[in-house]
Protein: B30.2/SPRY domain-containing protein
Amino acid sequence: MHLFIYSSIYLFIYLCIYLFIYLYLCQVWSSIFMKHNDSKMFCLTGSGVNKVFVKEHDDAVLPCSLSTRENLVGMLFDWRKNGQKDGQKEVFLYDAGNHYNNGRQGQDKQFKGRVSHFQGQLMNGNASIKIQNAKMADSGIYSCDFPKLQPGQTFSIELVLVSGALIDMAKHLGNLSYNIWSKMKQKVSYSPVVLDPNTAHSDLFLSTDLTSVCCVDGQKLPRNPERFNSVISVLGSEGFDSGTHSWDVVVGASPAWILGVAAESFQRNKDVGSQSGLWRILYYKGEYTACSRPDPDTVLPVKKKLQRIRVHLDWSKGELSFSDPDTDTHLHTFKHTFTEKLFPYFNTNKPYLLEISPRRNPLSVTVNHHHTFDFNNQQEVTVLLHLYLSECALKYFGFGVFL
Ligand SMILES: *[C@@H]1O[C@H](CO)[C@@H](O)[C@H](O)[C@H]1NC(C)=O
Ligand SMILES: *[C@@H]1O[C@H](CO)[C@@H](O)[C@H](O)[C@H]1NC(C)=O
Ligand SMILES: *[C@@H]1O[C@H](CO)[C@@H](O)[C@H](O)[C@H]1NC(C)=O
Structure:
């Protein structure tokens, strides 16, 4: 009888934990992946490296074209992946019709049978390749090299696999080895602001960790009321109505962006230009301008191209300041008696990434059941919660967690 009661209680607790993890993961997963249906998006980053975001198991097209549109049929181009530890890997080499898919030797085994070029595009100077069934291990920086051109040309493309990092963790839950912990320690970085995918305009692409955004088109997203429909904007997921908050945004090479804060009541489906409740600086045509309606715009006396912008909100004091963290130069301060919750605001209509700078991960982990968690970080807590719960489930209930 006792045994029956105990087993029922255990079973019940286990089911609750399972359900909780499942629902949580589903929510995170779907909120991220509802957006990421199109696997062939790419953004330009400040460093001149193109970033291609691809969902795990989809095909990745890495773009590389000569602007001269020179015919490549009789030429040579070489794709390599730059590894940190293992040096360069041969991904795809095409030499006047001779390549790895028709007998040429030397391709790295990681890419064997998975990489193809676009034969019909060669005559347009297009040396793009397709990697089938992209895996996490394919993430990294690729170079597309034309060594025989005068002068030689090399392009860099970063492939970013958008998987659920969380799901990946979950796969390893049964094996809480030191390796996994330490890997996680490097992976999980702490962002002061996480973007809210439900507010993102349908042309915006958010990275899986919800800390970068760029503009692409052609996504079909549900028209929910939180979503920006007229301006290509996205808000941070957390609003502030007290205290001080600050975040850095890498704007890099982006030729046009708007950063600032928006009040909770700001109308997302109406014309932004005339509404109050949005304090921002915008960069356009080489000029920095501070705007907040109904005040007139202020053109800022900034001559150089800024790489990063620090946004500092002191809600209680009623100040919103912008500065250049690289030179510690003040750009502009808005003074206003704030009465509402304010959300970080990001706007770009260009295919260049705006990235919220991650900070060094404050997590410290000691293995063997002494864990120190940082509960200020949502991502970290999610990951750790999964690990913790599964570890508990395994230890106390003798069940594996199947996700
Ligand atoms: C992606 O979108 C297309 C239609 O646009 C749909 O048919 C397909 O099922 C979607 N794929 C995923 C993985 O959601
Ligand atoms: C190169 O070819 C690929 C594959 O057909 C295509 O997706 C890409 O848009 C082409 N690039 C250019 C610049 O035409
Ligand atoms: C689990 O641990 C074993 C032994 O340390 C290792 O060989 C195996 O690859 C690990 N599995 C995973 C999924 O990390």
